[in-house]
Amino acid sequence: MKRILVAALAFFCATTLSLAQEATAELSPRVLPMFGGKQKTEAEQKQDEKFLTSCDKNFRDRKEASKFFLERGWEYLNEGQVDTAMYRFNLAWLLNPDNKDTYWAFGLVTSARGDHQTAVDMYEKAIALDPKNSLLLSDAASSYLAVYKEKKKKKNLKKASSYLNTATSADSSNAYALYNLSVVKYYEKQYGEAWDYLHKSRNINMSVIDYGYIMELVAQMPDPKGFFNASSAEGTAN
Questions:
Q1: Are 145 and 161 in contact (CB under 8 A)?
Q2: Which of 103, 109, 154, 218 has its CA 20 to 30 A from that of 140?
Q3: Residue 14 has what pLDDT?
Q4: In angstroms, rounded to a whole number, what is the distance separating the alpha carbons of residues 123 and 164?
Q5: What are phi and psi of 223, to 5 degrees?
Q6: How many other C-beta atoms lie within 10 A of the C-beta of residue 201?
Q7: Residue 227 gets which letter from DSSP?
Q8: Which pLDDT score, from 0 to 100, does residue 22 have?
Q9: Minimal CA–CA distance to 69: which of 57, 83, 87?
Q10: What's the predicted TM-score (pTM) here?
Q11: Residue 2 has pLDDT above 50, yes or no
Q12: What single DSSP character describes residue 228?
């Protein structure tokens, strides 16, 4: 899963805008998490039963089948075929509602679409099944921070901070968690600590850093280490 997430991160960085634009159009339940949570027609239910019966004949069990369709979903997603990927994720969920990776996938896609509240809901379902997963917790925290930015409710900031502390306790080399802890400290106006976490993050993996955020932080407090400067429009280092 970690290898797939690294590939997916590159995809999301390149296509977040297009996904956000896609979200403005009405989406079919086939490409919404858990088929949109809507009651299916009798014909759709029969189609699901036929699909499940076919998988029962062709896989050792439904967990194996769920894993298969999840992997196909990641392949489609990394090729930019978002709707096809989401349908495969839904099939994976249909086969095994206890597969935390399907909820994780739902969270990543809905977050990239700009629907951060739904992403939070999906991440929470995944965390309920795997509460100590450092990468999962840092992704969930990122969506909580996005919700906080939109609604300014402190409970979302506290939730993000709690998940990030757990994430870094489980894996001190999680650069994305350290970066998001920097964002938490920025919102708390603790700019010195924000810089400390940012430098810890960039020492591990520079690619997780949003340079727009760096410029916001520089505007509040110059980099104590002098690594980043305000005159660099792209946030390049000295």
A1: no
A2: 218
A3: 42
A4: 14
A5: -60, 115
A6: 21
A7: S
A8: 53
A9: 87
A10: 0.86
A11: no
A12: B
30: which residues sit within 8 A by CB, 6+ positions away? 83, 86, 87, 90
C-alpha 38/C-alpha 41 separation (Å) is: 9
Task: For residue 210, give the nearest of 7, 8, 3, 9 by alpha carbon.
Answer: 9
If pLDDT is split at 50, 70 and 90, which confidence band does 4 have?
Answer: very low
Q: Output the CA–CA distances (angstroms, integers) from residue 89 to 7, 10, 103, 222, in the order listed.
A: 17, 19, 9, 44
Burial tier of 58 (Cβ tally within 10 Å: 0-12, 13-18, 19+): exposed
Which amino acid does the sequence have at 133?
A: N
Range(s) of the chain covered by CATH 1.25.40.10: 131-238
How many Cα atoms occupy the beta-carbon half-sphere of 135 within 13 Å? 14
CATH class of the 131-238 domain in this structure: mainly alpha
| 136 contact partners, CB below 8 Å, separation of at least 6 | 100, 104, 123, 126, 127, 130
Residue whose token pair is 């999962």: 136
CATH number given to 1-127? 1.25.40
Q: In 10 A of CB 6, how many CB atoms?
A: 12
Q: Which amino acid is at 188?
A: E
**Chain centroid, CA 152 distance in Å:** 20
Which residues on adjacent β-strands are paired with residue 228? Answer: 237
Residue 136 DSSP symbol:
H
HSE-up (13 A, CA, CB side) for residue 192? 0
173 C-beta neighbours (distance < 10 Å), count: 12
